[in-house]
Amino acid sequence: MPKKNFYDILGVKRDASDAEIKKAFRKLAQKHHPDAGGDEKKFKEISEAYETLSNPQKRKEYDQILMFGGIPGADFGGDGGRGRTYTYTNMGGDFSGFDFSDIFGGAAAGGGGAQGAQGFGGFDFSDLFGGAAGAGGARSRGPVKGQDLSMSINVTAKEALDGVEQKITYRIPSTGENESLTVKIPAGAVNGGKLRYKKRGEYSPNGGPRGDLVITTNVAEHRLFKRDGADIRMEVPISMYEAALGATIDIPTPEGKTVRLKVPKGTQDGKVFRFKDLGAANVKKKGTKGSLLVKVKVEVPKNLDKDERDYLEKAQAAAVHDVRKNLQRDALM
Question: So what's the pLDDT on residue 138?
Fold first, then answer.
């Protein structure tokens, strides 16, 4: 009975795409992996097949061999083909029962393998009968974790403050499969924050665990409230009269409530007032919140009517405080 080639072993057609080959290998590897109680010989067989068909150059060379009549794929690798009998049917004659070890000699060990292959259109059989597909194959390296996949998700400033759930759909590159997932964005999420979902990434090429899915949050900026980690900063304008005489003003909070800010007499431009526990939830310290930091900006009127101008001129004439009292002294120090 003729032996199966690599395509037969993986159960795919000769014109199978890379994604179809990967998908077929993944299913077979999961079924036959020794750690899962599978058949070790079968697992080695499918690993050798995938080793070649997943490599574009090796697959091209392998397809060239099949054009001459077909060399059984399951017997590639391992000991390099020495001492094995293959069926090789060329257009010029039938080579059934021919032992390729007579031609390739020590191909697996590098002893003239490439030179002996020159009679076959320059094809170097040492690529297949040694090295990567040699004894132990993929199994000698052991199962490896699949690659992590990454994507980003957009959330509004309010969603980041309150927390939100969003359903996403993403594609697994190796198989082309679409997977859906409900992403739970925690309250207090920050721009550039990472959410990791284990075993939702790429499949392993040899029966190992799946990689992870890493999601980056892109948080939109709020017009008034600016995030600084768990703290929230805002800027509030006050008049020069309020700054000089003092005032009590209402301030909106990120939660939609209102707090009162008492502005002391003589408050200077840029003064920052802190309201504890009125910021965002701290994702690094559960159960705690940041502060709301209110910076006052003293607004000087640009257009005065006659009454305002007269009033300010009288106030200026009556002023006794010299704001540049120590300017010259300080310049000489």
Answer: 40
